[in-house]
Amino acid sequence: MDALKKIQEPVRHDLERFNEMFKATLTTSNPLLNIALEHIVRRQGKQMRPVLALLSARLFTDAEKALPESVLHAAIALELLHTASIVHDDVVDESDMRRGQQSVNSLLSSKSAVLVGDFLLSKSIEHASVVGDIIIPQRVAELGKMLVDGELLQLVNVDSESMEESAYYDVIRKKTASLFATCAQLGATLAGADDGSAELMKRFGMLLGICFQLRDDLFDYDKTNNAGKPAGNDMKEGKLTLPVLFAARRNREVRELALKVRRGNVTEEEIAVLVHLTYDEGGIIYTEKAMQEFSGMARGLLDDFDHSPVVDSLIAYLDFVSQRAI
CB within 8 A of 86, min separation 6: which ones? Predict the structure, then answer.
């Protein structure tokens, strides 16, 4: 059994129910929209976020009982919101590829992709509303605002000469980690967890999400291209991540090249030099160490729970996020 199947094992049947409902909700009579939605379903990845919501709910649900349907609707709402944000981000970034696969804007057009994203947002609101608890659509709405705020902050940072980590962490907490945090929190809440336990799971999700993004950022320095993300791709889009921010504070040449990245006037050759210098200055090691520290904090939060297959899966999930090769 591979790592992902081990992680999913305690929620295998729940995930089957989720997938049936998710595919059903992405059905429409509009032929153009169907092309995009079928493409989205086909390129579904590891389903890390809905799996987290389901595992979090399982922590507070008898193993013999089915999860409340509200958990599945919330997981779908969050996955649809996440998918919509990806579709819109690819339009903003003018990206033709996403994880080695064609983006929706490349498949259709930027105009069509914006409308597809809007459709996904509408479906997300629909599933959040079905739950019948006003707190769910409120949380989904708050998350939507957070994702947009993070994207706008990232755009603002492009014009900054600061190499401080605080701005970087502010962006990844809002753009990436907030989604993991909400998945973990809502899963627990809808399974009947008390406020303190739901808040603990939110904290776990936030730390896990930070680890996820740090690992993702390290892929930008992977010369093998195994992640479907060419080395230096973030830099081509004007983005500076933790490894190069660390190196830029230690090396003037790195800082000058990093500023060229933000200004959008850096060459392919200069990006290659910047990647090399970031390695030399210890940026990769520094980021890996930071990721392991966040992972350790997240793992410590699980000590509050009795040992169970679900806790084992959450630990395996955390290890997978921090150590994944793709």
Answer: 98
